[in-house]
Specification:
By secondary structure, this protein is an alpha+beta fold. Among the domains are: 16-92, Resuscitation-promoting factor rpfb fold, CATH 2.20.230; 141-215, Lysozyme. Helix content is 18%, strand content 30%. It has helices at 141-152, 172-177, 189-203, 209-215, and strands at residues 16-27, 31-40, 44-48, 53-64, 67-80, 85-92, 164-165, 170-171. A hairpin with a 2-residue loop joins strand 4 and strand 5 (67-80). The radius of gyration is 26 Å and the shape is elongated.
Length: 218
């Protein structure tokens, strides 16, 4: 309910910034098992390795004072569908002939049975979610590359008109407060990483709350 402002009251006005970002989430793959007489009973082999899929999520963030106060998902799409693993289990008894002595290597077509489906083509520019995404050492460039991938899709020249710029999505005021000139997206990746380290020295990972939690940096 609105209240009148009286003597001695203090009015605080905070600016809210709205921006969009994209992040990627891995989709676990399944596993399919089938029987084969090419292996002895109890034997197993991997015919095709499984591969995780990738979902790209677009979110809208509201920031006040550099902190995210609200997040809303506005779109998601499957960038790469998961591919299930295929495992064969042997059914041949010790007296039955077996088809060959060498097991089929993972990813090669099996000697009999249903044909192996072809691999789906890899979409360009979509990185595999990293197994060591928890790396959070600000001295290492790879730490900032992962953060940029989460914040801007790895685009160091990002300028979408949302008031945030570059791979690390700096606000213009923040960039200038760190001693930067021009706009972040006009500067090199190395310069943006240098400024990211300066900001980290002041505030830790707080300016990038969601991505740094997702990446395991804090």
């Amino acid at each position: 309910r609105d209240q009148p402002v009286g003597p001695g009251d203090r009015v605080v006005v905070e600016r809210a910034d709205v921006r969009r970002r994209q992040r990627q989430v891995a989709i676990a793959h399944g596993q399919r098992q089938r029987a084969t007489s090419a292996l002895p009973a109890g034997g197993r082999r991997t015919v095709r390795q499984g591969r995780a899929g990738v979902v790209t999520i677009t979110e809208e963030l509201v920031e006040v004072g550099g902190d995210v106060v609200a997040t809303r998902e506005i779109a998601r799409r499957t960038t790469r569908p998961p591919r299930e693993a295929i495992i064969e289990g042997g059914t041949a008894s010790s007296g039955e002939p077996q088809l060959g002595d060498e097991p089929t290597a993972a990813g090669e077509p099996e000697p009999s049975g249903e044909p192996e489906p072809p691999d789906e083509p890899e979409p360009p520019g979509e990185p595999e979610p990293s197994a060591d995404a928890g790396l959070g050492d600000p001295a290492k460039p790879a730490t900032w590359d992962r953060l940029a991938q989460c914040e801007s899709g790895g685009n160091w020249q990002a300028n979408t008109g949302n008031g945030f710029y570059g791979g690390l999505q700096f606000a213009a005021e923040t960039w200038r407060s760190l001693g930067g000139s021009g706009h972040p997206h006009e500067r090199s990746r190395q310069r943006q990483i240098e400024m990211g380290r300066r900001l980290h020295a002041r505030r830790g990972w707080a300016p990038w709350p969601k991505c740094t939690r997702q990446l395991g940096y804090r």
